[in-house]
Backbone:
């Protein structure tokens, strides 16, 4: 137990350090993709240590992609009070960031290979409980290696996740069963941008799984659409699919649609992105301790830095 607490404390500290880093600055190159990634002209050549920008676009509809957000969701979430889980309202909160370690720029500005470290926390709160009980928290830290050439980009990432039930949730009943859940995963994603359209596909291989009933393999694909970057507001939408053999390859479907507002960068000051989105989800739960449950929800979320 002591070793586990030390490990989780180390993960939390690493994520906290990531949260203290400043947001990536707005790109200035003319061929930056619609999703908002890109590099500054001053850092577009040679090798750059501790780069401030990203070359792989975040996944718009993936509920576990590293980002900061606050969502209010209503749907079917199993609980001790209501095993059916119908008509449950929760708040889903995320804190996530990516910190560049080194980038080897390509022959064209905005292209190259980059190594980052990422950290994120995803937590869910039961808004139907008197004290808005914390239900579940997932802690993730990883090392992604990303690549971009023209409209093609890819991400290879190894990451660790551990998940925990909230104290208030555990105290609801002595019969509460929790999993000592943690794993490492190797992920690969390939992405292609075609004007306003983006498609991506790949998968994950989970190892050192605890418990062993966690899926060993995962297929991952999705599509995104962005209206453009010309104005301060653009329409964005996406559908993300994940499937495992343990659920008979029936995909978990996450869909989001909304408006992204941007404050343009001023000098060396970073741009600010805020996205208001409608959210839909149906399939196996993305929340660690409830990975064996099927859930569904509709909601609205405010996302930062997409």
Residues:
């Amino acid at each position: 137990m002591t070793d586990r607490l030390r490990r989780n404390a180390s993960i939390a500290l690493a994520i906290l350090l990531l949260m203290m880093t400043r947001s990536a600055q707005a790109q200035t190159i003319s061929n930056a993709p619609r999703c908002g990634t890109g590099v500054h002209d001053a850092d577009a050549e040679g090798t750059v240590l501790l780069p401030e920008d990203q070359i792989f676009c975040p996944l718009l509809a993936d509920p576990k992609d590293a980002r900061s957000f606050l969502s209010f969701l209503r749907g079917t979430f199993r609980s001790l009070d209501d095993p059916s889980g119908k008509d449950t309202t929760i708040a889903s909160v995320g804190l996530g960031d990516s910190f560049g370690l080194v980038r080897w720029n390509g022959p064209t500005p905005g292209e190259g290979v980059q190594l980052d470290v990422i950290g994120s926390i995803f937590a869910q709160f039961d808004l139907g409980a008197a004290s808005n009980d914390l239900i579940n928290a997932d802690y993730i830290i990883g090392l992604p290696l990303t690549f971009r050439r023209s409209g093609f980009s890819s991400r290879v990432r190894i990451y660790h996740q551990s998940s925990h039930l909230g104290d208030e949730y555990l105290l609801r009943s002595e019969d509460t069963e929790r999993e000592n859940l943690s794993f490492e995963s190797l992920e690969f994603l390939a992405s292609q941008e075609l004007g306003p359209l983006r498609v991506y596909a790949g998968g994950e291989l989970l190892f050192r799984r605890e418990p062993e009933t966690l899926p060993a393999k995962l297929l991952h694909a999705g599509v995104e659409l962005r209206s453009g970057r010309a104005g301060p507001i653009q329409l964005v939408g996406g559908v993300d699919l994940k499937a495992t053999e343990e659920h008979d390859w029936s995909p978990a479907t996450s869909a989001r649609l909304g408006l992204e507002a941007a404050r343009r960068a001023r000098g060396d000051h970073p741009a600010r992105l805020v996205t208001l989105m409608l959210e839909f989800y149906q399939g196996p739960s993305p929340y660690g301790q409830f990975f064996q449950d099927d859930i569904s929800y509709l909601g609205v979320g405010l996302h930062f830095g997409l």
Remarks:
- The CA atoms of residues 95 and 273 lie 15 Å apart.
